[in-house]
Specification:
Number of strands of chain A: 0
Number of helices of chain B: 6
Order of helices and strands of chain A: HHH
Structural class of chain B: mainly alpha
Distance between the termini of chain A: 20 Å
Radius of gyration of chain B: 18 Å
Strand content of chain A: under 5%
Oligomer: heterodimer
Number of helices of chain A: 3
Helix content of chain B: over 70%
Largest sheet of chain A: none
Low-confidence stretches of chain A: none
Shape of chain B: globular
Largest sheet of chain B: none
Shape of chain A: elongated
Order of helices and strands of chain B: HHHHHH
Mean pLDDT of chain B: 88
Helix content of chain A: over 70%
Number of strands of chain B: 0
Strand content of chain B: under 5%
Distance between the termini of chain B: 14 Å
Low-confidence stretches of chain B: none
Number of domains of chain A: 1
C-alpha cells in the first residue's frame, strides 16, 4: 500500500500535467495516466523486492 | 484560500454520479480482495491505492464547471480542465497522507489493530494537511 500510495501520487500529478499543460480531455488524461500508476507501482515493487 | 463546506454543491451532483463512484469504489475493493487472494497481500496492497474513483470524479468536476460556464454564455472547456487539474493536485497531496497511513499501519498493526487504525487516520490527516499547507506556502 505504501508503494501504491506513491504510485497514486505520481498518477495524479501526471493527470494534473496532462490536464493543465496539454489540455487533454479529463477522461483521456485520467486514463492515459494509468500507465504511470502501473509503471511506478510495479517498478517500485520489483525494485523493493530485488534488494536482498 | 479558506477551506469551507459548500453544501449547495451537493445538489449539483445527480444520484447516478454518486452511484458511479460507489460502484467503482466497491468493484475495486472486490477486485483488490481477489488479487490479494490470488497473488498475495503485497500485490493486493498495491491495488488498495489504485485510482478507481479518481477518473469518475475528475470527469464529473470537469463537466460541472464547464456546464456552469456555458450556462453563463462563456466558453467553459479551459476552466473545466483547470478545475479537474486542481482536483488532481489535491489527490497528489492526499496520496502522501495515504502513504503515511500505510506506514503507521505497517509499523503498529501487530501491537493493536484498533490503535493502529486511529493513529494511521491521524497520520493521514496530519500529513495531508501539512502537504496542503506546504504547497500553499510555496
Amino acid at each position: 500500500m505504501i508503494l501504491g500510495a506513491f504510485a497514486l501520487a505520481a498518477y495524479s500529478w501526471s493527470a494534473c500535467l496532462l490536464l493543465k499543460k496539454f489540455m487533454l480531455a479529463s477522461w483521456l488524461a485520467a486514463t492515459a495516466a494509468l500507465v504511470v500508476w502501473f509503471a511506478v507501482a510495479f517498478g517500485s515493487w520489483a525494485l523493493w523486492f530485488s534488494i536482498p | 484560500m479558506i477551506v469551507h463546506l459548500n453544501l449547495p454543491a451537493l445538489r449539483e451532483t445527480h444520484w447516478y454520479e454518486y452511484l458511479i463512484r460507489f460502484v467503482l469504489g466497491g468493484a475495486m475493493t472486490v477486485i483488490t480482495g481477489l488479487i490479494a487472494a490470488r497473488f498475495g497481500p503485497i500485490i493486493g496492497g498495491l491495488f488498495l491505492a489504485f485510482p478507481a474513483i479518481f477518473p469518475a470524479s475528475v470527469t464529473l468536476i470537469d463537466k460541472h464547471v464547464r456546464q456552469r460556464k456555458e450556462n453563463a454564455g462563456l466558453p467553459g472547456v479551459r476552466r473545466g480542465r483547470e478545475a479537474a487539474a486542481l482536483d488532481a493536485i489535491g489527490a497528489t497531496l492526499g496520496s502522501f497522507g495515504l502513504a503515511a497511513f500505510a506506514v503507521v499501519i505497517w509499523l503498529m498493526i501487530e501491537l493493536s489493530p484498533a490503535v493502529a487504525l486511529v493513529l494511521a487516520t491521524a497520520a493521514w490527516l496530519a500529513i495531508s494537511m501539512c502537504a496542503w499547507a506546504l504547497r500553499r506556502w510555496l
